[in-house]
Amino acid sequence: MAAASTHPRQWHVQPDAAHMAAALSQRLQQLSHAAIAEHGSVRIGLAGGSTPMAAYADFATAAMPWPQVRLALIDERCVPLSDAQSNERAIAAAFAGVRAQLGAWQGLYSEAADPATAADATIRGFGLPFDITVIGMGADGHIASLFVESPDYDAAMDATSGRTVLPMRFAAGDGKTDRLSFTLPALLQTRRVLFCISGADKREVLERSLDGRAPHYAAARFLAAYDGPVDIFWSPA
Q1: Would you say residue 14 lies in a domain?
Q2: Beta-sheet pairing, 9-13 with 69-73
Q3: Domain range spanning residue 91?
Q4: Which of 35, 68, 101, 136 could serve as 131's disulfide partner, Cβ 3.0–4.6 Å?
Q5: What is the pLDDT of residues 185-232, one digit of tens each?
């Protein structure tokens, strides 16, 4: 296992979802302004799922220099934008008021014959590393769409993988929609990570991932290998 990071893992415990959204938005604003001051733009990777959406909507109301802000998704379901399951559809709605002003916007899913290869190429064109990546987590310890039950999981978690995006496919009987996901080595490139979780069950999973009690979780494997600073935003619900 990788040596423990020398960078802090700072918890930002909030009383409820509204306070968490405001706190996460404020941190995104601070870090974005710092990145823009340092090198003229900020590249942000965005997790899907319901938990960070209120923070994205709050961030979109901020007085940011939007042409210097570049946004990209880190995971997606293999569904068109017209589908209610689409992460890009939900995130685009949160940023609807400023999307036309953004320096760049990059989704993952397309109607290409090989959506994962197409997404890998477009993300390389978008540019890495991200200055900031917002990461959610499931109660099963998955991050992005790195689900252990997918036969593609080992390839996506391989530290030597040269891929930025891989498919995460599921057996027909699993009842899950196939996805696209950033690989572990691609996520590890980010300069700063903001975890966004809610609920007592997810807090326990993340605490176990941080202290080594559950090294098999995707979250734990990421945190063990990641050597940058991590801010953890949590609320009870």
Answers
A1: no
A2: unpaired
A3: 20-227
A4: 35
A5: 999 999 999 999 999 999 999 999 999 999 999 999 999 999 999 999
